[in-house]
Amino acid sequence: MRYSKADAENLGADRCLLQNIVILTGAGISAESGLGTFRESDGLWEHHRVEDVATPEAFEADPDLVHRFYNVRRDQSAKARPNAAHIALARLEAGHPGRVRIITQNVDDLHERAGSRAVTHMHGALSGALCHGCGHRWPAPAVMSSTDTCPACGATQTRPDIVWFGEIPYGAEVIDPALAAADLFVAIGTSGQVYPAAAYAQHAARMGAHTIELNLATSANARDFAEIHIGPATELVPEWVEHVLTE
Ligand code: APR
Question: How far is the CA of 36 from the centre of ligand 1 (A)?
């Protein structure tokens, strides 16, 4: 069942119970599962230039290099395990009587493997392949290459189903109404440097949501949060979830 913000307010004492909770996650939530972040020291963007591996132009110029980059990440993601933060969010979704939606910038599937169901991958997913020619999507093999053919049209224009810089993020049809109806917006492990995700806290706050940041270091958009808690996700997220489920 879906509760709108007005429903929740009308229900007075039950408001907390029926809260719409929207959670934005970034690379920091998967860091303690062994997956690297992007912008921290030793992060992915320190070892690879964004413009060499994460733009449509890069793929056009050197598809094999781009495939190799994502093949490594797909392999790392498959070997990683959900950590206590992913597991706590799945517990929140299962136990909270209101609505819980995760919007993730991550391309790993650790939220799903922890048991979360309402997950929007705004930057795509390593588990997906996309035909640049006809737009067909299918599960990505463990190793993709520039000689793969699209199972629908046969073209050799297959790419990882990842949203690259300069492309439009996925899920606006889910994300926009979720932000508008949010009572509580929580950002976990994201540096707040990449838009549109970096604008979601401000947007949700303007629509009336309480905003919380859970992060190892304050983000670039820290001013948009009413509450900031600093620490590792595997500690902060289970504590926060416990608080929500028992309040
Ligand atoms: N617990 C909580 N937060 C952590 C942890 C941890 N154990 N480790 C790191 N962090 C935080 C860092 O403090 C930082 O704020 O995670 C954040 C990682 O920031 P980025 O590397 O910039 O990752 P993210 O915000 O997800 O990047 C957004 O940028 O390159 C693109 O498409 C890519 O989806 C990605 C987007």
Answer: 9
Residue that finishes a domain, picked among 114, 139, 162: 162
Q: Are 111 and 21 contained in the same domain?
A: yes
What 3-state class would DSSP assign to 102? Answer: strand
CATH of the domain at 106: 3.40.50.1220
Cis preceding linkage at 232, omega within 30:
no
Hey, what are 103's tokens? 């919007």
Report pLDDT digits (tens) over 124-159.
Answer: 999 999 998 999 999 999 999 999 999 999 999 899
Residue 57's domain comprises 36-79+124-162
Nearest by Cα to 81 from 44, 102, 112: 112
- Asked whether 26 lines ligand 1 (CB < 6 A), one says yes
Q: Are residues 132 and 218 in the same domain?
A: no
In whole angstroms, give the CA distance from residue 186 to residue 210: 8
Tell me which of 67, 86, 123, 203 is the catalytic residue: 123
* Contacts with 94 (C-beta within 8 Å, 6 or more apart), sequence order: 115
The residue whose CA has the least distance to atom 28 of ligand 1 is: 194
The tens digit of pLDDT for each residue in 224-235 reads: 999 999 999 999
Q: Does the C-beta of 43 come closer than 6 Å to ligand 1?
A: yes
The string of DSSP letters for 121-190 reads ETTEEEEEEEETTT--EEEPPSS--TT---TTT--S-EEEEE--TTSPPS-HHHHHHHHHT-SEEEEES-
Pair 21, 86 in one domain = yes
